[in-house]
Amino acid sequence: MIFLTLATSVVAQTQQTSPQTAAQPSADSTKPQASVQQDVPYATVGGHQLLLDVYQPGETSSGLRSAVILIHGGSWMNFDKGNMRSMGMFLARCDFVAFSVDYRLFHGTENAWPAQLDDVQRAVRWIRANAAKYHIDSDRIGAFGHSAGAQLAALLGMEATRDNSDPALAKYSSTVQAVVDVSGPVDFTTHRDSEGETFLSKFLGGDYAHNAKGWKDASPVFHVSKNTAPFLILHGTQDVEVPMAQAQELYDRLTEAGVPVKFVKVEDVHTFEKPEARKRLALETQAFFTQYLQPGNLK
Fold first, then answer.
1. What is 214-225 written as a DSSP string?
2. How many CB atoms lie within 10 A of CB 269?
3. What are phi and psi of 120, to 5 degrees?
4. Does the pLDDT of residue 104 top 80, yes or no?
5. Counting beta carbons within 10 angstroms of the beta carbon of residue 112, is it exposed (0 to 12), middle (13 to 18) or buried (19 or more)?
6. What residue spans of 48-139 are helical by DSSP H?
7. pLDDT digits (tens, 9 = 90+) for 162-221
8. Domain total of the chain
9. Alpha helices of 94-168 — where are they, by DSSP H?
10. Strand, coil or helix: what is 99?
11. What pLDDT, on the 0 to 100 scale, is given for residue 6?
């Protein structure tokens, strides 16, 4: 049921919640200003240009800053980097450099998994390759994702580069040092029904009976190890798109592996609609990245 409701909820989210604000913090006018550089190309795949937006603090710094890659949700089929504008501006005002990325979206039989993972891993390596330009420390990069984007962010904290065929980026790691998972699906092998399985069979390249390895490879819970990056998990207690059990399973796996993890249950729905929920999201995210991306605090 998890993945059917994720797919069908996209329509409802489009109608009821602006992608600019879904699961994003409210503006804080007391923080320093930030700037945004839009539509920066980071790769071209199959003739399709992939773009990102860069959110930078308005004030100059004598030292290198930490970076955060922002990954939007939308059931791997919808929305774009603009979804993360509010979070990008918020993090830039908190002295981070944030990169909100587009990735190839799944349509029909086009851009099936793992195209999305390859793209966000490529984006992390591009950020490292351009660290000097944006005055960031390439050893201090975090990932923030919501919903489907959280699944991708989680894998960035667990897995090495899958497709290392680009010689210009081959020497750069795609692994991040801290992950914020907001409302993310992390185990594709559970909470299935016939319609949801039909979607996943197309997306993952075969049904579970014939492609169990593929389903597990795309599920973050099966990649947890002692080397996994620290995690902050936030999940709505009223989330009907992705069950709370998914977040609990990831938390349990991380705890068993000895990985630093904090699990925050928020009294809200999948997209965090209440102002108090968005404030909690923002403050928890800021505190977490400050803790784990500061020099000397890296795992």
1. HHHHT-GGGG--
2. 19
3. -70, -30
4. yes
5. middle
6. 85-93, 115-129, 131-134
7. 999 999 999 999 999 999 999 999 999 997 777 788 999 999 999 999 999 999 999 999
8. 1
9. 115-129, 131-134, 148-156
10. strand
11. 58
Residue 229: DSSP 8-state: P
Q: Residues 283-296: what's their mean pLDDT? A: 93
How many CA atoms lie less than 13 Å away from 193 in the CB half-sphere? Answer: 8
Least confident of 42-56, 147-161, 180-194, 201-215: 180-194
At 291, list the tokens. 């803790």
User: Taking a C-beta distance cutoff of 8 angstroms, is the pair 98, 282 a contact?
Assistant: no
Terminal Cα distance for the chain, rounded: 36
Strands of 133-192 (E only): list them: 136-146, 178-182
- Between CA 148 and CA 88 the distance in angstroms is 18
Question: Which CATH number is 20's domain given?
Answer: 3.40.50.1820
Short-list 65, 64, 158, CA closest to 120: 158
9 belongs to a structural domain: yes
**Sheet-wide strand order for 97-101:** 34-45, 48-57, 97-101, 65-71, 136-146, 178-182, 231-236, 261-266
Tell me the C-alpha distance between 202 and 121, whole Å. 22
Q: Is 298 inside any structural domain?
A: no
Q: Which residues constitute the domain of residue 210?
A: 2-293
Q: Tokens at residue 239, please?
A: 């989330």
- Is the confidence at residue 134, as pLDDT, over 60? yes
Let me know: does 168 contact 129? Beta carbons within 8 Å: yes
Q: Token match 């503006």: residue?
A: 27
The token duo for 133 is 């330009």
Q: What is the pLDDT of residue 19?
A: 38
* Dist CA 69 CA 121 (whole Å): 10
Q: Is 25 inside any structural domain?
A: yes
Contact call for residues 282 and 182 (beta carbons, < 8 A): no
Q: Which residues pair with 107 in a beta bridge?
A: 110
